[in-house]
């Protein structure tokens, strides 16, 4: 699994210039994605998951955004590429699907047209060849009666179908990396399962690396091989999926795990919640960013920021008390 | 096997659904009274402008001094003017000029307004420049600015079109810009960018088509506005140069004789009123039909 990574993010820092000053949404994030690997990125809303994804593809308006760090893909640092060169990376080598399939498609074009566009932008093929490929892609993504569907408009399709179309667009140029930004959040549970199964299937068939951004730990356990947990713009824990679920080291990860409703839990007890809310990016706490909400926090935590450190062979964590937590096992706080 | 039959059924259901949708759309169009009435009025005027000359017996510029200032009669349905020219003929030929100018202005300002609006929504610095220029143009009353432009350009039909288009463009640009600003934030635009589409592609193939419905509605109002401004300019003697008939020119000729020959002002005046009412009704109707946020639900 840990062969040469296809995509390597090193110390990525994305900040926006806003009216209230500079805001750093992604603060020193590093991770790598192996060939054909499914990497989960989890965290609650506003923790910088999506911002990280969009920074990789440089989708932000760059007059208001600064990127620091490096994003290595096929021997190139994407962050230092000229803007024009990025056009041939997006959709061609790295593609992305979005949270809301209902608004991700242009209402005025048929889906066949839109998928064909993804091909025609990058490949020098005729319209007819593109259409043949569209048909293939629709079949691949499990859309019934693809010949009919090609001529339909987005509003004629259900949410799940539209997400399949989005996936077909992302696959159009056989990109090596797919960034899926909460691909199932807007869909209902049965469709979620179908879309996840489809993505797993495609991952195996096409050997495509997937970065799966989600806040659903169930999905992570199901499909990912490695997980990055983010909190307030930083990576707080990185581990392979088995270790992460077996012994989460960061108090935040533990909190997330405890917040999942279990089939066999005591239903008279209210569900666990992590106290407090994510602080605003305008007032980032000094020291460990999770300290204000952390049951283990002491003075050290509140004054000095811990580094992301290796624990065991497959786990990295950003916490002063990781050793203690590890020793005491998963004991309750 | 069962899968196949299900699939065929689904297609049939879809076809029936489409038919039903078309029927409902047709019903909505017909139930939209202002749209229908407006359309009929405009269609009539356009038909008259195009085919009317075939049925006319008098040349619009042919003078007949003996029969000057004659009231409406069987020979001259709308009477004759101070030079004995047939008012009906002049109004019909005038329709070609007035409607032609209005249409040309609507097309040109739509085109320019689309470009200005869409680019200023997309590039922030360009937005500041273009919108300040637009503010500048909009700060003047439309007629006054058109008058000044005509003074600078000189009296020709093509100059009327240019002057009025300059006045009208910011109004289209504003509408397109606000629509495009909202569209720009839609996920599908971001998704298209994530596919590797260039800015030009996003602007013209993805944002522009989605602004068209608002643009068309605004363009019909500009069409009406342009006819009024053209008439006013011609009335003031700064528009279409006489003796060419335009509705404003005919009115202008009539104003000296307003107490002696009411038909010289009444008929061209009514024609202008009719055209403007028709266009405005049509525009209102179109807006109700195309804009899901308007008050269609209340009916």
Describe the structure.
The complex is a heterodimer of chains A (333) and B (299). Chain A is 32% helix and 23% strand. Chain A has helices at residues 49-56, 83-87, 111-122, 127-140, 146-150, 159-171, 189-206, 217-223, 241-246, 251-258, 299-303, 322-327; strands spanning 5-18, 21-34, 38-42, 65-73, 76-77, 94-97, 177-181, 209-214, 226-231, 234-240, 309-311, 315-317. Chain A has 2 domains: 5-231, Rossmann fold, CATH 3.40.50; 234-327, no CATH class. By secondary structure, chain A is of the alpha/beta class. Chain A has 12 helices and 12 strands. In chain A, helix 3 crosses helix 4 (127-140). The model of chain A has no long low-confidence stretch (mean pLDDT 85). Chain B has 299 residues and is mainly alpha-helical. Chain B has a domain at 86-291: MetI-like (MetI-like fold, Orthogonal Bundle), CATH 1.10.3720.10. Chain B has 10 helices and no strands. Chain B has helices at 2-31, 33-55, 87-122, 124-139, 142-153, 157-184, 187-194, 199-235, 247-255, 263-290. In chain B, helix 2 packs across helix 10 (263-290), helix 3 runs parallel beside helix 6 and helix 4 (124-139) packs across helix 6. In chain B, 43% of the residues are buried. The mean pLDDT of chain B is 87. The chains are: A alpha/beta (333), B mainly alpha (299). Chain A binds chain B through residues 57, 59, 63, 87-92, 95-100, 103-109, 117-118, 121-122, 144-145, 148, 166, 169, and chain B through 7, 10-11, 124, 186-188, 190-198, 201, 205-206, 209-210.
């Amino acid at each position: 699994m840990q062969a040469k990574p296809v995509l390597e993010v090193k110390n990525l820092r994305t900040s926006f210039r806003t009216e209230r000053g500079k805001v750093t949404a992604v603060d020193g994030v590093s991770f790598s994605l192996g060939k054909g690997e499914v990497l989960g990125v989890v965290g609650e809303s506003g923790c910088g998951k999506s911002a990280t994804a969009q920074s990789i593809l440089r989708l932000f308006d760059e007059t208001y955004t600064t990127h620091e760090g490096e994003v290595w893909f096929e021997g190139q640092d994407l962050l230092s590429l000229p803007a024009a060169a990025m056009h041939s990376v997006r959709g061609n080598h790295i593609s992305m699907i979005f949270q809301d399939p209902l608004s991700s498609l242009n209402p005025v074009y048929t889906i066949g047209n839109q998928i064909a566009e993804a091909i025609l932008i990058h490949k020098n093929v005729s319209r007819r060849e593109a259409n043949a490929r569209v048909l293939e892609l629709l079949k691949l993504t499990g859309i019934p009666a693809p010949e009919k569907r090609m001529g339909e408009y987005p509003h004629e399709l259900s949410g799940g179908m539209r997400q399949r179309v989005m996936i077909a667009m992302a696959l159009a140029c056989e990109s090596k990396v797919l960034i899926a930004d909460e691909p199932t959040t807007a869909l209902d549970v049965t469709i979620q399962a179908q879309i996840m199964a489809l993505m797993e299937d495609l991952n195996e068939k096409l050997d495509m690396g997937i970065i799966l951004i989600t806040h659903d730990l169930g999905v992570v356990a199901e499909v990912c091989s490695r997980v990055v947990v983010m909190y307030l713009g930083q990576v707080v824990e990185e581990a392979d999926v088995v270790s992460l679920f077996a012994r989460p080291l960061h108090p935040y990860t533990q909190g997330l795990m405890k917040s999942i409703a279990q089939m066999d839990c005591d239903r008279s007890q209210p569900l666990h919640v992590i106290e407090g809310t994510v602080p605003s990016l305008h007032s980032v706490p000094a020291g460990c960013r999770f300290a204000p909400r952390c049951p283990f926090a002491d003075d050290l935590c509140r004054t000095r920021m811990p580094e992301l450190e290796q624990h065991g062979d497959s786990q990295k964590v950003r916490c002063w008390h990781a050793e203690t937590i590890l020793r005491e096992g998963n004991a309750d706080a | 096997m069962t899968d196949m039959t299900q699939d065929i059924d689904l297609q049939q259901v879809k076809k029936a659904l489409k038919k039903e949708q078309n029927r409902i759309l047709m019903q909505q169009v017909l139930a939209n009274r202002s749209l229908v009435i407006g359309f009929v009025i405009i269609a009539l005027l356009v038909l008259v402008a195009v085919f009317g000359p075939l049925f006319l017996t008098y040349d619009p510029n042919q003078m007949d001094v003996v029969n000057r200032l004659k009231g409406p009669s069987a020979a001259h349905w709308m009477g004759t003017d101070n030079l004995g020219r047939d008012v009906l003929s002049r109004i019909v030929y005038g329709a070609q000029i007035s409607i032609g100018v209005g249409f040309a202005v609507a097309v040109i300002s739509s085109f320019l307004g689309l470009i200005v609006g869409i680019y200023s929504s997309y590039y922030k610095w360009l937005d500041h420049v273009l919108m300040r220029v637009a503010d500048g143009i909009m700060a003047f009353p439309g007629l006054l600015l058109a008058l000044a432009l005509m003074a600078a350009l000189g009296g020709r039909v093509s100059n009327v079109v240019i002057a009025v288009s300059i006045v009208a463009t910011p109004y289209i640009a504003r509408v397109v810009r606000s629509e495009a600003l909202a569209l720009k934030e839609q996920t599908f635009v971001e998704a298209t960018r994530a596919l590797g589409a260039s800015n030009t592609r996003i602007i013209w193939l993805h944002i522009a088509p989605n602004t068209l419905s608002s643009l068309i509605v605004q363009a019909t109002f500009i069409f009406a506005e342009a006819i009024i401004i053209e008439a006013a300019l011609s009335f003031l003697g700064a528009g279409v140069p006489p003796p060419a008939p335009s509705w404003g020119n005919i009115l202008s000729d009539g104003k000296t004789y307003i107490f002696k020959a009411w038909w010289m002002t009444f008929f061209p005046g009514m024609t202008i009123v009719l055209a403007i009412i028709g266009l405005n009704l049509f525009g209102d109707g179109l807006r109700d039909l195309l804009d899901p946020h308007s008050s269609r639900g209340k009916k």
